[in-house]
Every structure is written in structure tokens, then in C-alpha cells.
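#struct-pred
JK: can someone run the complex with NDP? inputs below
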Amino acid sequence: MSYVDEVIERTVRENPCEPEFHQAIKEVLCSLRPVIAEHEDAYRRDALLERLVNPERQIKFRVPWIDDNGNARVNTGYRVQFNSAIGPYKGGLRLHPSVNLGIIKFLGFEQIFKNSLTGLPIGGGKGGSDFDPKGKSDREVMAFCESFMTELCKYIGANTDVPAGDIGTGAREIGYLFGQYKRLRGLFEGVLTGKGLSFGGSLTRTEATGYGLLYITEEMLRHNGLDIAGKTVTISGSGNVAIYAAEKAQQLGAKVLTVSDSNGWVYDPDGIDVAALKEIKEVKRQRLTAYGDYRPAAEYHAGKGVWTVKSDIALPCATQNELDLSDAKELVKNGVLAVCEGANMPTTPDATEFLKEQGVKFLPAKAANAGGVATSALEMSQDSERRYWTFEKVDKELKKIMVNLFDNINDAAKRYDMEGDYVAGANIAGFEKVADAMMAQGVV
Ligand code: NDP
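RT: done, C-alpha cells with the ligand placed:
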């Protein structure tokens, strides 16, 4: 059995009931086969892959809080500090009822390579809880966040581990978490990113993941002789990533036809009204059914269906495994040119394979959505130098990072005779730097 297969087999056996984690490990390690084969003896000697797939530390804790009726409630909190070979752990906190250790581990593992690809000195981590902020009052969300941070603050810090937002964790949650950290530790430091602009946040961080997704999509299309202007785009999700992906797509001259949430989806033949979407989701915290109040010509459909709409570019921006093989077939039937992942691992492995076989340009999440964490690292720089950069400066840096990132993954794929395979390119380019650092630092 090859070294890669041995490690996959052992990881699956030792981490049962964590299908998303297994999926991420297999996807990454299998595409690294040619790189690992070149260094197999050294990597085996130093157990590089065994160390890579085992988090440095995983913390699981109880989060008790009191709801508005005076009842005590208990959720489970997680922080997985996966890999600090190239910098302090960095990765978001997901608040969603589906959260479990396997999901946090898959996200943390992916984060190692994504962070490496940004070219910035940040290691990989991820955390969260099965708490659902949806339908909770501000006071309940604050009570949860304070309790969560009361435990988490023991393990994080500006130079050790810097969490950020993710599904369910937006500006409001980051504000409550930061306030509690400061109170408990007596430190005003850049321990979280995605902070409000009045207390150490960075301009452009809110937009960064969606904007970055479009910058790299534009660059990839340009490299393949295509122009994003005039193209039609389907987007799933209607959260942070989806909203700013839609905004930038329209700024670049594309037309966005759809958005969705976990209940249904909207088709707007005239192009999604981003201002209305922001008001519904960011201000009023409503469901997408409200979109028709702003745009009577738009259609609302319950359930899933974004990928049945004909478009040139598909941007899944909601959650993992939301685009499966039947969706991929539908997209190909409708002539899709590119699928670029805004969410983490939104495309199932068989759908990814099918899209690649059919010649659809496919940008994987760890490259395509790296703009968020890259800008978080720029926020860390601003916090440590106690300065604020302008929107234009951060946006320019973000664009430069995304264009460089595309060049790096494209080169890595070419070096291993897999030109155009951006999945392999991203895994290889992300891995090389981390592996080099881990080998240089000895068996730790
Ligand atoms: P938000 O919470 O802001 O939005 C998530 C969106 O996805 C909502 O529209 C939500 O609908 C929908 N959604 C969530 N879970 C499901 C589900 N199980 N089925 C269907 N729809 C679902 O999160 P973000 O926009 O921040 O994150 C979206 C994705 O992007 C995630 O995969 C995240 O890990 C990834 N990402 C985010 C980054 C960031 O900077 N925010 C950075 C890099 C990656 P509803 O409101 O109904 O739940």
C-alpha cells in the first residue's frame, strides 16, 4: 500500500463518523500523490502525513447560557488548532446546528492549505458550536458568545490563535466575543478578525471573501481567454460570501440571476438587486421570501434549485456538499463554463470529477475563497501596527493576493503535468510550503 493510502486508511479508522473530514483528507492527499512520491522516504521517516492529518490540539467544551425565558441551555463549543507550521492558527468560528467535531476538522484541515496559498504567515484552525443564532434575540446571542469566549479565551491570543467569522458568525457575534475576551484577559489586541471598524477591524474585510472570489474567477477566465463582463452567474447562499460575490460580479459587468437560503431560492431575470438583498439579510435579518417585496418580477421557489438555472458561471456560496452530481449534470447540460467555490467544499467529489472531465473550469474553495482569510491577515497587520488602511489599499492588496494565488496554483499544476487542474494545483502549492516548514522544524 502506498504511503498516501496507508495514511488515509488509518485516518478513517481512527476518526470514525467524521465523513466530511474523511472527504477532505482523501481529496487533498490523493491529489498530492506525485509530490509525495518524490519525497516519500523523507516524509515517511518524519511521519509528515500522519502529523499533517492530526490536529496539534482539539478543544471541546461546554457552553451554558440562559435564554430569554430564564431557562438554562447548553451547547458544545469546539476549537481545532490544526497546524501552526507557518504562523499562528487562523480560521473562523461556525455557529450552526449541524456543527460537530468532524465538520470543524474538515474545515480546519482545508484551512491549513488555504492559508498557505495566501502567501501570508498564518497557520490553520477552525472552531464553532452547534448553537443556532437564527431566531435568537440579541441578548441571547450575547449570552451565548460571552459563555463561549469565557472558555475559548484560555487558548487564543493575537500571536497564538486568531479566530474569525464563518456561517452564523458575523459582525454582531464577533463584537460580543471580542468584548468578552477583552474583559476577561484585560488585553486589547487583535485576537479576532472581522471586528467592527471602531475597534480594530479592517475596511474591506466584510466584502473580502466575495470580492476575492470574483477577482480570482476573473483572472482564471482571462487566463483561459474569457471575459467575465456580459456573463450570467448563478449564486447559492445569501450570506456574507454570496452578497459580496453578487456585488462584485455585477461591478465587473456580469448578471447575477439567483441567490438562495436554506428554505428556498430566488430567480431574478433582471439581475439580483444587491441593495435589497443587503437590507433583507444584513439589516432586517429576514428570509428570502421578502425579496419579492422589492422586486415583484422575481420568482421565489421553495427548496433547492439554483443549479437548474442556465448560466455561464456557477458560484456555490452556501455550505458543504450543496452541489452534487445531478446538479453538475444539469449545469453541464446548460453549458456552464466555470464553477468557482465560494463556500468551503460545496461540490461533492463525484460532481467535481464530472465537471473537470467535461472541461468545466473548476476553482476549488481553498483558492477561490481565500480572500477572506487573506484580508483577515491584513487586519492582523493593521492591529499590530496600530493603524488603519484605506478601503482602496486593502482592496488593492486583496486583488494582488488573488491574482498571485491564481498564478501559483496554475504553475504548480503545470509543474506536475496537470495544467488546468486547479484542484491539484491548489493542493500542491498549499502543501509545499507547509511541508517544507514542518520538515525544517523537526518532528514536533
Ligand atoms: P453566512 O452565515 O453569512 O451565510 C450562509 C448562507 O448559506 C446563508 O444564506 C444560509 O442560509 C446558507 N446555508 C447555510 N447552511 C445551509 C444549509 N445547510 N443548506 C442550505 N443553505 C445553507 O455564511 P458565510 O457567507 O460567511 O459562509 C458561507 C460559506 O463560505 C461557508 O461554507 C463558509 O465556511 C465559507 N467561507 C466564508 C468566509 C467568510 O469570510 N465569511 C471565508 C471563507 C469561506 P440560511 O440563512 O437559511 O441558513
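RT: quick notes.
The mean pLDDT is 97.
The CA atoms of residues 237 and 261 lie 5 Å apart.
JK: thanks, will look after standup
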